[in-house]
Amino acid sequence: MRKVRDKIIVVGAGIGGLTAALCLARCGAEVQIIEQADALTEVGAGIQLSPNCIKVLRLLGLESVLLQIASRPVQVRIRHWRSGAQIAETPLNGTDGDQAEQRYGAPYCTIHRADLITLLATAVSEHAGVSLHTGVQVHQIRQTDAAVNVSTGAGNFTADAVIGADGIHSIVRAQVLGEQAARFTGHVAWRALVPMSAAAKVLQSETAEVTAWWGPRRHFVHYPVRRGEWLNCVCIVEQAGWTEESWRRTGTRSELLGEFADWHAELSGLIQAAASDSLFKWALYDRRPLPQWGKHRVTLLGDACHPMLPFMAQGGAMAIEDAAILANCLKSAAIPRAFLRYADLRRARTTWVQQVSRRNGWVYHLGGPVAWARNQVAPWAMQRTTQTLFQFNPLTVA
Ligand SMILES: Cc1cc2nc3c(=O)[nH]c(=O)nc-3n(C[C@H](O)[C@H](O)[C@H](O)COP(=O)(O)OP(=O)(O)OC[C@H]3O[C@@H](n4cnc5c(N)ncnc54)[C@H](O)[C@@H]3O)c2cc1C
Q1: Ligand 1 — pocket residues by CB below 6 A?
Q2: What span, in angstroms and rounded, lies between the C-alpha atoms of 207 and 202?
Q3: Preceding peptide of 336 cis, ω within 30°
Q4: What average pLDDT does this structure show over 309-313?
Q5: pTM higher than the cut 0.90
Q6: What are the extents of the domains in the chain?
Q7: Biggest CA-to-CA distance, the chain
Q8: Beta carbons within 10 angstroms of residue 152's beta carbon
Q9: Predicted confidence (pLDDT) per residue in 89-108, tens digit
Q10: Are 267 and 237 in contact (CB under 8 A)?
Q11: Is CATH 3.40.50.12780 the classification given to domain 7-73+113-181+288-365?
């Protein structure tokens, strides 16, 4: 096994960039993270973390703290948009013990994004092998046979390699592979936070679960965050012609109530109970799978190379998987061979998740008899997809 002594620049300190820095430093690399934001504050409320990515956080020694600050849902449950009848379920952590751990090898949890970023950023700050430069924006990447030069608003940085973990509008990708606009998917995501005390009065069923309500042209997902103090709601609506991509764009309660007016009463109850400063909406974009993930000494990771619709709740998980596999590839081969191997090992799985996520935008939103037929096969289909997603162990790849 090769000792990794490379100097590596990671562009972007989101979930992917921070995890990559930790995985690389753990293997011996000297890592600098360059982040344009002045401070690491994650917008957007909740995120689900599935067993496939928790295996990486376990390797980094972060699992026990994670489980203290996250929620452990008892199950994922799909419900009918109007009747509320159960369509399918996946048990996760019930009275029979931690089924996620038993079946897939690690727990499942839901967490406030800010808590996850704080967890990762604290680990980064405690690691001697990683330095973080905030408030620095990357403008240009130039590489020679021996090194990569990164021009930023705060001067030039040089390293043996660069990893672009700079999100869907990645400047690293544009510099290395050329400009290409992301595509609007025709979906708008709303988010809202409901105090759990209020949510418990509205919901007839278990609050400590991930619930997804499927219905015509919309779906509504909710799960606990902040150790169960809040219920995080993500409401997806098909809406052509509204393309503003910002988690900070507020929406009105009446507009969201209108979107779910004829849905089950529990959903209008949740919207009514949402904290009024927590209602935001965001147009959802993705990209087609990339045939190439980088060039020579530069590669990509997370949303920078495989942005996807959040309809499998796997964008962050894929970025975390990427991080572990990229670090493993560097242990067995030098740059740039390691980067080619990493992309080869990742492409099939991330392409599948991108494509199924996009297809789910159609499947979840069916109506009429086709929706009835979908509901008959949903328990079987959900079990099969869950198995493929969650059982995967990124630590044994490469
Ligand atoms: C509604 C919704 C729900 C979701 N739910 C889930 C879920 O439950 N589970 C899950 O796993 N995933 C989920 N996702 C997907 C997940 O949020 C993303 O896939 C993940 O955050 C991507 O992380 P990243 O680190 O690749 O990119 P980002 O989080 O976009 O981070 C990129 C970073 O790069 C920085 N940057 C950008 N350009 C530059 C530059 N030029 N110079 C320096 N820094 C730069 C940015 O400031 C940012 O900090 C969801 C997404 C949405 C929209």
Answers
A1: 11-17, 34-37, 47-48, 137-138, 165-167, 171, 189, 234, 302-304, 310, 313-317, 319
A2: 10
A3: yes
A4: 97
A5: yes
A6: 7-73+113-181+288-365
A7: 63
A8: 17
A9: 999 998 888 899 999 999 99
A10: no
A11: no
